[in-house]
Design the sequence.
């Protein structure tokens, strides 16, 4: 009996001291990366956007890749500035890569836009790709058939 109690006590102590194994899709890193990126967009902080966008090799600000990264960041800002965004869920998950469905709202238009997020070699999650074409061209009014009523 004492042996059983000691075994159970040892198992409980080991379980309390260990960290749980991550569940697929449970890593908050990709969601946080999208939130930080969209905050940088809202703040018109293109330097921060470049720090939060890139490839598994690192951020564009760090690697200076692609060579026209500053232009690409400015284009992303132009498409996303003045929007609100909310992560709706994860569409796809793989080792070091996640695709999130993000609701982007601009001028009454609600669009579901995939954001691809990757884990860098340094272990940080950053934006890798955004389907900007789904957001709609900047300054273009929302077509009536795509307009959704504001939430109650």
Sequence:
């Amino acid at each position: 009996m004492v042996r059983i109690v000691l075994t159970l006590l040892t198992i409980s102590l080991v379980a309390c001291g260990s960290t749980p194994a991550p569940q697929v899709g449970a890593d908050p890193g990709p969601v946080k990366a999208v939130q930080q990126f969209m905050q940088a967009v809202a703040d018109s902080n293109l330097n921060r956007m470049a720090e939060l966008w890139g490839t598994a090799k690192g951020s564009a600000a760090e690697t200076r890749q692609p060579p026209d990264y500053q232009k690409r960041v400015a284009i992303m800002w132009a498409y996303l500035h003045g929007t609100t965004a909310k992560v709706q869920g994860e569409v796809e998950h793989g080792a070091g890569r996640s695709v999130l469905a993000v609701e982007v709202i601009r001028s009454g238009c609600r669009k579901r836009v995939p954001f691809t997020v990757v884990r860098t070699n340094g272990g940080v999650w950053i934006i890798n790709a955004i389907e900007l074409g789904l957001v709609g061209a900047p300054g273009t009014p929302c077509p009536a058939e795509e307009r959704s009523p504001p939430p109650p």
